[in-house]
# Entry
Amino acid sequence: MLVVVADCHPLFREVLRGLVDEILPGACCLEAATVVDVLDLLAAGNGVGLLLVDQSLPDADGLAGLVRLAISAPDLPIILFSPMDSPVVRFHALVCGAAGFVSKSLTRPEMVAIIAGVIGKGAAPLDIRHRSRAEPAERVDILTLRERMVLEALVRGCSNKQIAYELQVSDTTVKVHVSSVLRKLRVHSRTQVVIKTKRINEGITPPSPRTDLSVRG
# Structure
């Protein structure tokens, strides 16, 4: 397997290569220091099978870099490494397209377990220390990647116009996605989406909506 390890610090890229060697002996690693570097490697058509990406890449812009990678390679598992050990960030990473979330504060065996889970099952516990009876993945896996991105924006309180601007789509397209999210999560309003998100993600408290609470936006 060809694996891309992306981090702006050479020392941590070495750590990532070591994790890959332990889990996938004989795998080849390609290194990257920015999101653009990763996109270039993907565009080269080298048959990359896994991405290990640091959240703090210089051009990541929060989780926007993760979204760019997820859109560019929707079938490629992406494991996001984060300097934060936050259930909120973990949740947003999931809805933005990550297959796994690894806090850099975890021990090496814990990191190995998460990466191995992604490789073995296609989806891993986002953090083995935060398991609950209602895993986020059990509820949001029914959403498409674009619907997950819309859900993440809804949790942040964005209006339809704001979502359309962020995703570079029309207001009509956003309305379709919002309606689909509400239908699949079996709720009737944006407020209920936020409330349900809080309930199905134990210990996670997303920001309260700031704007329009209707589907019309």
